[in-house]
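ok trying this again, last paste got cut off
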Amino acid sequence: MNKLMTQKSTGKLWALAVAMMFTMVGTDGLVAQTGDWKAPRRSARKRNPMRKDASAVLAGKAIYNQNCLACHGNTGKGDGPASAALNPKPRDLTSPQVIKQKDGELYWKIQNGRSPMPAFGSSMSRKQIWQVVSYLRRLENGTAPAAPKPVTDARSSVTSLLDQYFDLQSQLKVSGWDAKARGTASKLARTASSMGELAKGDKKQKALWAAQKADVARGANQLLAAKNAEPVAAFEIITKALDSLVRTFGHGETEAVSLFVCKMGKDKAGSTWLQKGKKVMNPFPWGKKMPGCGEELKSYAPPAKIKSRP
């Protein structure tokens, strides 16, 4: 009899414990089952300092195209090229469930993420996250900037990117790579993101164009991030992408464009940059101490015929 009572008591205790567990977990504990994702209540009180800033929308679009478009799609419907392989599926960012959320709640979700969406708080600055939120609000009401037009002249587009790259490089060298100068990379990021797909060319060329122009934007966005402690690495992402674009599509500069390397950089492979002319113009922070550190790897002379050194 005592044994039976003990078993019944134990069963009740287990039932009570399970009930208490679900009471304590609440709706957040059912996120995986219901698909409901709620930001903390305190996040709703956070104000968007860029809500009415038109330039923030353009900057947010560039960041969105680089980091979000693959999953959420060009119009935010959750139909990006990578969405088919994801579970759960990306949220439709124009749905009533998203529209009703406060800016601060969207900010929190972008910052913290939830699988399969990464937490962008480690790769985006607070300013960049607010820019993305501002762009999402434009997506919701259908007033987002139009999709980029297809590129019909790849060489001219590459030249445009090169011109801005050289301007940025000059500013970085003069300023010693301070945060303010790195912020000028926003123009390069916007230009790269505003360029559409390649109108002419084979599949390989179109894929290379899309990937490399995206890397130009990615490197520029990383470079201008205030929290980025490795600006040289971000700059080299841009350099590598532009080198690939020039090698494939050529350039319209009036003089040769050369790829240089300084093997006294932060690693054994050295640090690379593109420049016009043959005189070494090391743009990196250590370049002032070692202005002559640089070796030409290859040169692209109009009309971009490669002259590689043995």
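PB: full thing came through this time. Strands lie at 257-262, 271-276, 295-301, 305-308.
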